[in-house]
Please model this.
Amino acid sequence: MLVDRARRLLVAVGSIGALPSDSADERVLKRAIVFTAIVTIFASGGWVLVGLLIGSVLVMATSVGGCLVIAADVVAFARQREIERFVAVLLAAGLGIVFVGYVTLGGSVAGGSDLTWGIMAPIGAVIVYGPRRSVPWFAAFGVMVIVALAIDPLVRPLGQPPPYPFSLVLVGFNVLAPAAIVFVLLRYIDGQRTAAKVQSERLLLNILPAPISERLKAGEQHIAEQYPEASVLFADVVDFTPLVGRTPAPVLIELLTALFTRFDELADQHGLEKIKTIGDAYMAAAGVPVARPDHALAAVGMGIAMQRAIADWNVAGSHHLRLRVGVASGPVIAGVIGRRKFAYDLWGDTVNVASRMESTGEPGCIQVTEETYRQLGQRYAFVRREGVVVKGKAPMTTYMLDVGQLN
Model:
């Protein structure tokens, strides 16, 4: 229970300033900055103990004031969600606290290592603003260091000097703490961005074939190729439209998702490339984007597996769905269209004929063209059909395979 509460608290804190429109990188960046601000508050609060030890009210006041400024900045960010203002105030406050701490501790005698904290400002600026826009913050850090060293002869400790062992501990803390914060911050951002990149690549592979995805990432902009030999498969759920009218939307989507997920698995098993789904229709191809001589056999093999899968699925779920499958073989053009939303698609007469093989077929069967049948080498017992009317074509001879008759 305590762990769950802590997790929910961390999620809530990490969501400060988040917007629904934020990209994955923006969410990671905001979360990292918020946690850095909170850690800085606790680290600044530690200087209250230093002020107590050396008897300096001003050191304590500087620490408390710095904590309040950063806390107010976090609250303002939670309300206004202005990331650039939030970061600018945070970086400026950090430099101010470092400079005042240097002076109140007594300059280089006791507070020289305090300047190390200032390096977090330009590093943070690089992370948030990028290299170019971070230059002013590096310049501000440099000016702060120069001014601090210039006035060092005039600075005197405002309290009792701390014991020597404590001074050594303080130096170590001032060097290691900011380094640790920056290291953890960079590791967190890199880890989150790597995870987001992996997720994006997975999503990209769900849209595009792996070889095509690699070519796009390599900078290739226009991908269009002609394949002299390929097989295109279309499958369609029979009488799906009446089912839509009597099935609640969530149930319908869940049904299609389960069915098409199974078809995706079959495509992987048989080496086909899923092209797209159109409503209740499923389109895949063999021989693209990687050519293969047995494309017709692979496509028909998947069609048989799809028919058997939907039959098993009906038995397991008490459904009564039927499937028509059509396959055509021949030349196709394949390529990527779109700039903002990529789509890998196929064009050509073979694609159109494959669609007609499905629409003029029979439930529970696979209808193929004469070319597909020829490439199968009489592997299956097809029934010859004469005079099949296909839009835009002369009456065709096709071949029908009743999957239910297979052993």
The chain has two domains: 2-205, 210-405.
